[in-house]
Structures are given as C-alpha cells and as structure tokens.
Amino acid sequence: MALRELPSALRRLAIRDVRSTAVSLAGALRRYASGEAASVKEVSQDFQDLESQSSLASAPDSGVKVNGYDPIKRAAGRRRELPPSRYQYRSPRYYRGPLHPHQPPPTSDPASRQFVPGPFSHTRLEQTFQSTISSDLMTLGYAHRPPGTIDVPKSDRLRTWDDSSPYHKNRPKRGPRGPEGVLRLVEKDIHWRNIPKITGVTVHSMIKGAIDDSSHLHIAGMMLQAVTGVRPVVHRAKHSVSGFGIRQRMPISLTCTMRGNQAYEFVDKCINLVFPKIKDWEGVKGTTGDSSGNISWGFSREGAILFPEVEVNYDMYPPKLIPGFHVTVHTSATSDRHARLLLSAMGVPFYGKLVD
C-alpha cells in the first residue's frame, strides 16, 4: 500500500518509524567506520604530516635558543645579502586612518617623515614667558567664583524668529546683525590650562611696484626672507582690475608665516630693536584686532630699514625698492583684551582707547 493512501494518523506514525530507523542506521555506520579506522595500523601520508600535539599544549621553551641567537653572526654567515627592502624601512607617506594595517610612527620618532629635530634651545622671550609672564597673566586674569555663585544669564548670541510667519517654525536661529555676520569668539577666563601664548606670526606685504616692474617683487622677497628667516609665498591676483593695471594671475604680494621659536624671535626683535628706533611713534593702536585674539601692526619703508638684517646689509637693497609690510601676531587668546594683555606684558606699547 502506498504511504499517501493511509489515514493521516497512520501516516505520521509511519514517517516517525522511518526517521528513527534512519538515525539508528547512521549511528551504526559511524561506529563501524571509527572501528575500521582504529583497526588500520598503517597511517596514510596525509595524516603523517599533522602534528601529534597542539602548539598551545607544548611545554614552554627553556630559553636556550633565544639566548643563543646571534643575528649578527647569522647575517655574516649568509652567502648573499637579503633584498634591499629588508634593510630599509620608510613609514607610510599618508595617514590612511586608524584601521589601516600600516600606521606611520609618531612625529617624535626619527623614522617619521614629519620628524623635526629640536628645539635645542628656547629664545629669551619664550623663557621669560614661561618663567614670569605666564604666571602673571594667570594671576591678573583670575576670576574668583565662591561656591554658590549664581551665573548672570547672558543674551543669546543668535537671533530668534518672531513667529510672524508659519515658515519661521523649526527654522534655525539667525546670525548676528551687521555686514560681516560673523560670530566673535566667547572670551574664556584665564586659568592654568589656557594661558594665552603666541602661536604664530604672519608678515604680509603688498608690492604695488610689481605691477610695472617685477624687480620690486624680487627685492621685497629677499628682504622679507632676510628679516623673517622664512621663504616667502607669492600670491597672485585672482581677478583683473583695469583701474589699477592688475591682470589675472599676476604676482602681487608676499607672505611669510613663522611658528615656534621663529615667531618669538621676530616679536622679540620688534619689541627690543625696532620699536625704540622709530621716531615719533606712539605705539600700536588699541583698536587693532579681529575680535579673536590676533593683533596687527605695520612697518613703513623707514621702519623696515631699522631691522638689523637690513641695516647690516643696507647697500644690497635699492632704497626705493624696499617695501613696508604688515605684521599679524596670532595668539591662543579668545579675545583682543587677553591678547593685548599678553603682548603688553612682553613689551608692546598700546595707545588710545582700548576696545574689548
């Protein structure tokens, strides 16, 4: 009788009997196969290559091989050297993320491509800042807040919508009023973690004479490189201005950026060597600054001649081709008030109304 012709109850019983019989036959065949394999005395070549014990279960090495290993003796005993790539290692040129298998070494490692030796010594101004000025700034800018002091609520920096239109709902706040529309940095209290310091100095010069004669640009580049110790970067005009005779892609200005010891040396040079020699000079205007802790001043042609690098070699520069330039001191301060406090402690004179 076929299985489909049986009733449903008998059909389920028959399927269950067939399954139990198949399972018992599979177990018997497995036991028979394992017994046959155990009875065979000759092991095939494939099984002979396998290790009898696990490497994790093996006894630890006594250390005789490790102590007796001499890489120099082993290298001297080679008949020929290994490929040059085995003796040379260069770190990856680009950082490709923390999960990349090849990671560049830290910049403090001499094997790094970004390794810069030094600093071997600190400038006088930086030593004065670390020993005296930094602690004085922290004391002058310290704001004592007793426990339980209630903070005065401050107005929002961004303007809200007046909800006069249904389109104002869920819209982000508006920027500040004014033509610039840029938020200034919030002034933070000075403490031992964020004492203002000089982060860099930028020297920029617009060479008007380069429009007619490129020699003005070459002389200005030589002078700025001598004064700052940094090779200047040439900037070209983005657009043509017929009124000034400027054509697109014309080299028109130079910029030098100094950081670290070079920045402190330049500021020290301005304070102690150049500023005292300028005749009838009141000082740096108190209104200067970009509301983010960067202070600027400028030197005319007569002021640029007073730098010692130009004075000692004055005959090398044609007097009429020496340009003036602007100096921007970048600080880690978050307001012009703290930046002026730092530069005043270093010796930069300010005059006029001081704008916060």
UniProtKB/TrEMBL annotation:
Ranges of Basic and acidic residues composition bias in the record: 153-166
Domain Large ribosomal subunit protein uL5 C-terminal: 251-350
Large ribosomal subunit protein uL5 N-terminal domain location: 194-247
Highest taxon of source: Eukaryota
Any one of the GO CC terms: ribonucleoprotein complex
Entries under InterPro entries matching the protein: Ribosomal_uL5 (IPR002132), Ribosomal_uL5_C (IPR031309), Ribosomal_uL5_dom_sf (IPR022803), Ribosomal_uL5_N (IPR031310)
Alphabetical UniProt keywords: Ribonucleoprotein, Ribosomal protein
GO molecular function, one term: structural constituent of ribosome
Record field: compositional bias (Low complexity): 84-98
Disordered as annotated region, ranges: 51-114, 146-180
GO terms (BP aspect): translation
Sequence similarity: Belongs to the universal ribosomal protein uL5 family.
Protein name: Large ribosomal subunit protein uL5m
